[in-house]
Protein backbone atom coordinates (compact mmCIF):
# COMPACT_ATOMS: atom_id res chain seq x y z
CA UNK A 1 0.00 0.00 0.00
CA UNK A 2 1.32 3.43 -0.92
CA UNK A 3 1.18 6.02 1.87
CA UNK A 4 1.41 9.80 1.49
CA UNK A 5 3.35 11.63 4.22
CA UNK A 6 3.01 15.42 4.27
CA UNK A 7 4.12 18.38 6.38
CA UNK A 8 7.62 16.93 6.70
CA UNK A 9 10.39 19.10 8.07
CA UNK A 10 12.82 19.76 5.23
CA UNK A 11 15.63 18.17 7.28
CA UNK A 12 13.93 14.73 7.54
CA UNK A 13 15.87 12.11 5.58
CA UNK A 14 14.50 9.09 3.73
CA UNK A 15 16.32 6.85 6.23
CA UNK A 16 14.57 8.56 9.17
CA UNK A 17 11.18 8.33 7.50
CA UNK A 18 11.71 4.66 6.67
CA UNK A 19 12.80 3.91 10.24
CA UNK A 20 9.68 5.58 11.67
CA UNK A 21 7.38 3.42 9.51
CA UNK A 22 9.35 0.20 10.03
CA UNK A 23 7.98 0.15 13.58
CA UNK A 24 4.70 -1.03 11.98
CA UNK A 25 6.03 -3.52 9.44
CA UNK A 26 8.12 -4.00 6.33
CA UNK A 27 8.76 -0.90 4.25
CA UNK A 28 9.24 -1.73 0.56
CA UNK A 29 10.33 1.76 -0.45
CA UNK A 30 10.55 5.28 0.85
CA UNK A 31 10.92 8.46 -1.20
CA UNK A 32 10.99 12.11 -0.16
CA UNK A 33 10.08 14.36 -3.07
CA UNK A 34 12.65 17.02 -3.88
CA UNK A 35 12.71 20.13 -6.01
CA UNK A 36 14.23 19.23 -9.37
CA UNK A 37 16.30 22.41 -9.55
CA UNK A 38 17.56 22.87 -5.98
CA UNK A 39 17.38 19.30 -4.69
CA UNK A 40 15.72 20.55 -1.50
CA UNK A 41 12.89 18.58 0.09
CA UNK A 42 9.40 19.71 -0.94
CA UNK A 43 8.06 18.67 2.49
CA UNK A 44 6.29 15.47 1.49
CA UNK A 45 7.03 11.92 0.48
CA UNK A 46 5.71 8.42 0.00
CA UNK A 47 6.20 5.19 1.93
CA UNK A 48 5.31 1.85 0.36
CA UNK A 49 4.42 -0.95 2.77
CA UNK A 50 3.84 -4.52 1.63
CA UNK A 51 1.18 -5.47 4.20
CA UNK A 52 -2.18 -3.71 3.99
CA UNK A 53 -3.01 -4.19 7.69
CA UNK A 54 0.42 -2.92 8.71
CA UNK A 55 0.01 0.09 6.42
CA UNK A 56 -3.42 0.94 7.84
CA UNK A 57 -2.07 0.72 11.39
CA UNK A 58 0.90 2.91 10.44
CA UNK A 59 -1.42 5.52 8.88
CA UNK A 60 -3.66 5.59 11.96
CA UNK A 61 -0.79 5.88 14.43
CA UNK A 62 1.52 8.18 12.46
CA UNK A 63 -1.08 10.76 11.36
CA UNK A 64 -0.44 13.81 13.53
CA UNK A 65 2.78 12.29 14.93
CA UNK A 66 5.51 14.80 15.81
CA UNK A 67 8.57 14.35 13.62
CA UNK A 68 11.37 16.88 14.12
CA UNK A 69 8.94 19.43 15.54
CA UNK A 70 6.21 19.09 12.91
CA UNK A 71 2.96 17.13 13.05
CA UNK A 72 3.02 15.01 9.92
CA UNK A 73 -0.05 14.28 7.81
CA UNK A 74 -0.40 10.64 6.81
CA UNK A 75 -3.01 9.01 4.56
CA UNK A 76 -3.37 6.61 1.66
CA UNK A 77 -1.78 8.00 -1.47
CA UNK A 78 -4.13 8.66 -4.36
CA UNK A 79 -3.17 7.31 -7.76
CA UNK A 80 -1.27 9.77 -9.88
CA UNK A 81 -3.36 11.44 -12.55
CA UNK A 82 -2.06 12.29 -15.96
CA UNK A 83 -1.49 15.97 -16.35
CA UNK A 84 -2.88 17.60 -19.44
CA UNK A 85 -0.02 18.62 -21.67
CA UNK A 86 -2.11 21.30 -23.28
CA UNK A 87 -0.13 23.98 -24.97
CA UNK A 88 -0.64 27.43 -23.86
CA UNK A 89 -0.58 30.87 -25.07
CA UNK A 90 -2.00 30.74 -28.58
CA UNK A 91 0.83 33.00 -29.65
CA UNK A 92 1.22 33.38 -33.40
CA UNK A 93 4.13 34.58 -35.44
Polypeptide structure, described:
With 93 residues, this protein is an alpha+beta fold. The chain has a domain at 11-42 and 58-76: RRM (RNA recognition motif) domain (Alpha-Beta Plaits). Helix content is 22%, strand content 32%. The chain contains 2 helices and 6 strands, in the order E-H-E-E-H-E-E-E. The chain has helices at residues 14-22, 52-62; strands at 2-6, 27-34, 41-49, 66-67, 70-71, 73-76. The strands form 2 sheets. Strands 2-3-1-6 form a 4-stranded antiparallel β-sheet, with helices on one face. A two-stranded antiparallel ribbon has the order 4-5. The longest helix is centred in the middle third of the chain and has 11 residues, at 52-62.
Features:
alpha+beta; four-stranded antiparallel beta sheet; 6 strands; Alpha-Beta Plaits; 2 helices
CATH superfamily of the domain at 11-42 and 58-76: RRM (RNA recognition motif) domain
**Name of the CATH class of the domain at 11-42 and 58-76:** Alpha Beta
Please give the largest β-sheet.
Answer: 4 strands, antiparallel
Head-to-tail CA distance between termini: 50 Å
Amino acid sequence: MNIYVGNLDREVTEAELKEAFEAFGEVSSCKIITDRFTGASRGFGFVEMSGEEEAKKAMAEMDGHDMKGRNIKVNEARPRTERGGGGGGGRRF
